[in-house]
Design goal:
globular; omega-amidase activity; hydrolase; seven-stranded mixed sheet; single chain; alpha/beta; 273 residues; EC 3.5.1.3; C-N_Hydrolase
Length: 273
């Protein structure tokens, strides 16, 4: 099946971001995409100072638009971090997924908050305004089962391993790495998660905006289960496409059967809730 990743240029105007995002979903559908993904923070600038201002309930304005365009185009739509979500007085970094009938299939709240300090380069603390999610998020399609993470979640190998154990063959991480961690770890982490679990891994970044307070790395990418980069964007707004070949995935798992060779008598990773 064809996967499309939309590397959107995000402005400070929510309505413009939503309009452009929906337009690009339509474009991707017209080119045969069955699963379409938007980047982290696609409807607002990325920064702790913006989260409260742009926050919405779910369902709300942004998720309603995503539901409508998913149904119109008959696609599975991963809504990036569609919005900073407000619920019960707390804010979450949340990704919603809608099916071809417009129904919401999953809602992933970022489990691992991006709190880092690289002296002289970048300091960021999502926990100043956001609360963490406490659950894994998977959804079924007629093609395969898909596992969801958001940005910093990709650094935690145990999460991807759980998804692999639960039968996911594609992991999608909307993310906004920066100019410090992007060149160092963006592709490396994707290839690691793909090879470790013999799955496809897709990451979807906003386009780079040098004038933004937080500058995203860009380079939305798809990696196959052999660890090969099979699609990669530059830094500009674009849509990249790749065909997910589940026969190739099955062949790789047969050739190198690590999933059946794990020593569960010696170690294990389990999902607690």
């Amino acid at each position: 099946f064809r996967l499309a990743l939309i590397q959107l240029h995000v402005s400070a105007v929510k309505s413009d971001n939503l309009q452009r995002a929906c337009g690009l979903v339509r474009e991707a559908s017209a080119k045969g995409a069955k699963v379409v993904a938007l980047p982290e923070c696609f409807n607002s600038p990325y920064g702790t100072q913006y989260f409260k201002e742009y926050a919405e309930k779910i369902p709300g304005e942004s998720t309603q638009k995503l539901s409508e365009v998913a149904k119109e185009c008959s696609v599975y739509l991963i809504g990036g971090r569609s919005i900073p979500e407000e619920d019960g007085g707390k804010l979450y970094n949340t990704c919603t997924v809608f099916g071809p009938d417009g129904a919401m299939l999953a809602k992933h709240r970022k489990v691992h908050l991006f709190d880092i300090n690289v002296p002289g380069k970048i300091q960021f603390k999502e926990s100043e305004t956001l609360s963490p999610g406490n659950s894994f998020s998977m959804f079924d399609t007629p093609y395969c089962k898909v596992g969801l993470g958001i940005c910093y979640d990709i650094r935690f190998a145990e999460m991807a391993q759980i998804y692999g154990q639960k039968g996911c063959q594609l992991l999608i991480y909307p993310g906004a790495f920066n100019l410090t961690t992007g060149p160092a770890h963006w592709e490396l982490l994707q290839r690691g998660r793909a090879v470790d679990n013999q799955v496809y891994v897709a990451t979807v970044s906003p386009a780079r905006d040098e004038k933004a307070s937080y500058v995203a790395w860009g380079h939305s990418t798809v990696v196959n289960p052999w660890g090969e980069v099979i699609a990669k964007a530059g830094t500009e707004e674009t849509v990249i496409y790749t065909d997910i070949d589940l026969k190739k995935l099955a062949e790789i798992r047969q050739q190198i059967p690590i999933l059946s060779q794990k020593r569960c008598d010696l170690y294990g990773v389990e999902m607690k809730k």
